[in-house]
Amino acid sequence: MIPNQWYVVLETDEVKPGKPVDVTRMGEKLVFWRDTQGRVSCLRDLCPHRGAALSLGTVAGDLIACPFHGFQYDATGQCRLVPANGKNAPFPKQLKARFYLTNERDGFIFIFWGEAPAELTPPRYFDNLTGMASASVRVVWNAHYSRAIENQLDVAHLPFVHHNTIGRGRRTVVDGPFLDWNGPDMFHLFVFNRLDDGTLPRRPEELSKPDSSFWLEFIFPNLWQNHLGSQARVVVAFAPVDADHTLMYLRFYQSFMKIPVLDRLVARLAMPYNLRILRQDQEVVETQLPSRSELKLGEKLVQADRPIIAYRRRRQELIEAAK
Ligand code: FES
Ligand SMILES: [Fe+2]
Questions:
Q1: Ligand 1 atom closest to Cα of 69?
Q2: CA atoms of 261 and 263, how far apart (whole Å)
Q3: What are the backbone angles phi and psi of residue 304, rounded to the nearest 5°?
Q4: Which of 63, 68, 114, 192 could bridge 52 with an S-S bond, Cβ 3.0-4.6 Å?
């Protein structure tokens, strides 16, 4: 995992008011709850008093109360009440649970995993989805999130893994691909797959940015979009569960049907096909070894793998920068 980044870890509807929720993300057991204003808080799911799981406790106003001895913690992990000491006793300043900053936008809950800088910018999301209706499903892969992401940047697999779905037509030769960075942590990727007519693939430098409304888009560390024109999109958020599991939040956005309620229904109708495509990917990606991708992995990469190399390079830079 890249430290010091905002990660999508949940969807909004997974944390309801009044009840703590326990999940494993980033290889750690975490507890989430909503305060009286509806804001989401996140602590390590471990009471620093004597190690019980806070998630078995209750929400007490803005605080979470441990099920064991009732100690209460705020969103920064600070213990605010020790019932055994009485409500008027000063709270023990050194008694703190590990906390993560949270942010909620576009139906996703993000945590900042690492040490937050003094001037923390909020998480980014795709700004080109305004006015679109969406439907969402969740799928767990037995794979490290880096492998799951790389698969979505891999354009050479389309005619093979997806030969009977999105990769129909035997367009096996990969020109480019053309990568367009939009700031240091976001890029667009244009796909130029074609039939093998005997000519060599064109190099990325020989291509120019196409005037197309079809592209892939990636925001570090874990957000991907397939821009299928102005009216349809597929978004995947890759929530790292642990070193061997990734929870994929798959969303389909559409704007060709605009009637309320029906718009979301239409988005939902696209799900079975998108899930089928994702299952085709899953079958192969879960077999990849080593299970976690790194910059220096010993893989024998080809020109078509350039987007994967770009992802690995930037990922490595961010990991180094966080040290
Ligand atoms: S273990 Fe949580 S209050 Fe004692
Ligand atoms: Fe795929």
A1: 3
A2: 5
A3: -65, -15
A4: 68
Residue the block writes with tokens 């993560």: 100
Tens digit of each residue's pLDDT, the chain (323 residues)? 999 999 999 999 999 999 999 999 999 999 999 999 999 999 999 999 999 999 999 999 999 999 999 999 999 999 999 999 999 999 999 999 999 999 999 999 999 999 999 999 999 999 999 999 999 999 999 999 999 999 999 999 999 999 999 999 999 999 999 999 999 999 999 999 999 999 999 999 999 999 999 999 999 999 999 999 999 999 999 999 999 999 999 999 999 999 999 999 999 999 999 999 999 999 999 999 999 999 989 999 999 999 999 999 999 999 999 99
Phi then psi dihedrals of residue 215, to 5 deg: -160, 170
Separation of 291 CA from ligand 2 center, angstroms? 17
Closest ligand to Cα 191? 2
- How far apart are the C-alpha atoms of 34 and 13, rounded to whole Å? 11
Q: CA 277, CA 164: separation in Å to the nearest integer?
A: 10
Taking the C-alpha atoms of residue 193 and residue 177, their distance in angstroms, rounded to an integer, is 8
pTM above 0.90, yes or no: yes
Q: Is the CB of 68 under 6 A from ligand 1?
A: yes
Residues lining ligand 2 (ion), CB within 5 A? 281
Question: Which of 213, 210, 194, 214 lies closest to 202, judged by CA?
Answer: 194
DSSP 117-147: PSSPPPPP--TT-TT-EEEEEEEEESS-HHH
Distance CA 165, CA 103 (A): 36
Amino acid at 277: I
